[in-house]
Amino acid sequence: AEATTMASSSHMDREHKGDLQELKSDLYDAKRTKKALRKMVAHAAMLGTPQGAPNVSVLLPDVMQCLESPDVEQKKAVYLFLSALAATNADATTIAFNRMVRDTSNPNPLIRALALRTLTGVKVESMAEGMAEPIRAGLHDNDPFVRKTAALSVAKVFDLSPEVVESGGLLPQVTKLLEDSNPHVVANAATALNEIRQRAPFTVFEMTMATATKVLAALNECTEWNQVALLDTLTLFCPRTEREAVTVLERVAPRLNHSNASVLMSAIKVMLHHLSFLPQTGDLSRNFTLKMAQPLCTLMSLPTDIQYTCLRTLKIVIQKYPSVLATAEVKTFFCKYNDPSFVKMEKVDLMIALATAENVHQILSELREYCHDVDGSFARQAMRAVGKCAVAFEASVDQCIKIILGVIENKLPFVLQEAIVVVQTIFRRYPNQYEGILTEICSSLDEVDEPGAKAALVWIIGEYSDRIEAAEEILEIFFETYTEEESPVQLALLTALSKLYLNIQSDRSVDMLQELLQVTNETVNDPDVRERALFYWRLLAGDLEVAREVVLAPKPPIEASLIENNIDAEVCSVICKRIPFVSSVLFKRPSDFVSYKNLYACPKEFKDTGLLKGAETRQNGDADALENGGQAKHEPAAVAAKAPPAVDLLGDLLSLEVPVQAQPQPQPVMAAAMGSPFSPQPQVSTATFSSNNPFS
Question: DSSP 3-state assignment of 464?
Fold first, then answer.
């Protein structure tokens, strides 16, 4: 393989030998020099690619001769070539280092900026120290184009060698550029500081009201991407008074009408941050919150990827400020036929969050169509939404029941499973009502095959076992496959058979319950199932009236929130400052899925300390460790607390011996046959069951 590689490389050199010779001759021809340089820029960009290109780095000494020309266009072409070559072969460009340093003092500001940009693009750590002085001069240059280039150069050198940036005192100088008179310089300084603060394990700078005012003034004169950088910087400003917060909010609010989605969502991020400094119940907070609704809704007409980002952002906003969409039209979030599945799922969640007593029937009419969608996951999501509407709005239950019955009649396989679970939820929310659908529910027994749906169906039958004529026969079907079922189904069946016995006390119900408890003791390994079986056996062995009060007791009605607060409050406060970055879409801290290279102690990696829990404490400790030249580590406590002994809960549960009070009446045969590890071995008795309680 090695011989093949060498042969291939030799073949490429022979193939491009003529091209290199032609380029070299063109470099010395004044009429063809610029054309040759443009070709070399393209070749340098393709070095290392599968397509292959001439190794133009060998012509670097000849290219350096072109820098002596006073032609600005030619110098620009040379620096473009050096930039392209530095990306693929940084070591080769080191011979031009001194020449680039000299050009940073050129009278032409364009040449100074090009030289500085190319100089700091050379990723050779040993050269970083020599870049500090040209950058410092660039930060104080009279020309704004050079200053903004120098600001970005600080971020590039920090990535290469942060010690050079710190020792050279470049960070305070970049921070001063935030108050520059040129808005483009302010924007580039903000971009550089945003990049550095995400990589530095320390606080880069603190923004004051004076600096924030300069940044706000630059917003109106910058490009879209520069506006995003400036808005990101404003999230670092913590106003000291309510008036300062209102000033920032008023100046940022016009950005909500911007046509660029990134600018709009960055403005939302800044407003959310500064709204936290206002009283949450005041008119000011409510007015600024309502201003965010309509701009966010307008993003629903943009491409699907932007829609998805906006919808995820809305979930964050709604969790913090539930009234933000109070004035929004729910039709905005109705699904279109060509929406991808991931967008439809988010839209359904937003529709439910906007549901009110006035528009819930309109929403349910839309959800009825979604429940018959060919996309099974989306249809199930719509059915879950129907259940939330039923729980939240009692006036809508009849319409929800009609939607559920339509799904059951059509026997849609995936949605049917979810419909059974929704029916259970409705029965729990409105007990002893809507019993007329029990017949339709029981008729769908053959189509129910998921554990969650089976458990819901078993619960329904057990809850209404005194009103379902075939309750014993249906539960017997699940009893026959008991050992093959999942734990939720087994738990539901134990409860359902106990309710059946307490409701009707038939011989068959007694036999099934006794056999079920025995099978659970002998074959089931799940401790939760075994513990519930023990609980019911002990309970039924006592007074049946007490057992009825426990097992058949009325359950408190469940409540459902239309807005799901499924984001931890601490995580929500972090990702509110990361809109519209990836972390705000994933609802995760950046440190949960991204790790940054530790620039101070390679090759160790550390996570984004600025966004971790307890960041301030850790940052101080890491900074002290790094100043001493070592890795940032967390030292263990000097006197470690003695670790508690491990507790084997499963072993304790299986060996639990609970004393049973002696009963004056004969012991049941079932108890003797069980030989249960949950309790002492009862005495075997040949006495028959009591007519009132066969378990005592």
Answer: coil
Looking at residue 602, what is its pLDDT?
A: 41
Q: Is 274:235 a contact under the CB 8 Å cutoff?
A: no
- What is the spatial distance between Cα 71 and Cα 242, in angstroms, rounded to a whole number? 56
H, E, C per residue of 358-410:
CCHHHHHHHHHHHCCCCCHHHHHHHHHHHHHHHHHCHHHHHHHHHHHHHHHHH
Residues of the chain with pLDDT under 70: 1-19, 26, 28-30, 44-55, 57-58, 87-92, 565, 596-696
Residues whose CB is less than 8 angstroms from the CB of residue 176 and which lie 6 or more positions away in sequence, other chains included: none
- Name 225's bridge partners: none
pLDDT of residue 197: 84
Distance CA 415, CA 341 (A): 16
Supply the angle between the helices 109-119 and 144-160 in degrees, to the nearest 10: 10
- Say how far apart CA 163 and CA 175 lie, in whole Å: 17
Q: Please report which helix (H) or strand (E) contains residue 213, including its range.
A: helix 209-219
Compute the distance between CA of residue 257 and CA of residue 16 in angstroms, rounded to an integer: 55
**Distance separating alpha carbons of residues 26 and 66, to the nearest angstrom:** 11
CA dist., res. 296 & res. 310, Å (int): 7
Q: Which amino acid is at 228?
A: V
Identity at 507, one-letter amino acid code: D
Give the Cα separation of 316 and 364 in Å (integer). 24
SS3 content of the chain, % helix, strand, coil (to 5): 65, 0, 30
User: Cα(86)–Cα(160) distance, rounded to whole angstroms?
Assistant: 14
Report the DSSP beta bridge partners of residue 595.
607
List CB contacts of 194: < 8 A, sequence separation 6 or more.
Answer: 229, 232, 233
First to last CA, the chain: 83
Q: Which pairing describes strands 605-607 and 595-597: parallel, antiparallel, or unpaired?
A: antiparallel
- In the numeric block, which tokens belong to residue 468? 């379902």
Side chain identity at residue 537, one-letter code: W
Tens of pLDDT, residues 31-82: 777 777 777 777 766 665 555 666 676 677 777 777 777 777 777 777 777 7
Can you say how many angstroms the Cα of residue 287 is from the centroid of all Cα atoms in its chain? 29
The rounded mean pLDDT for the chain is 78
8 Å CB contact between 164 and 157: yes
HSE-up (13 A, CA, CB side) for residue 238 = 2
Helix (H, G, I), strand (E, B) or coil at 596: strand
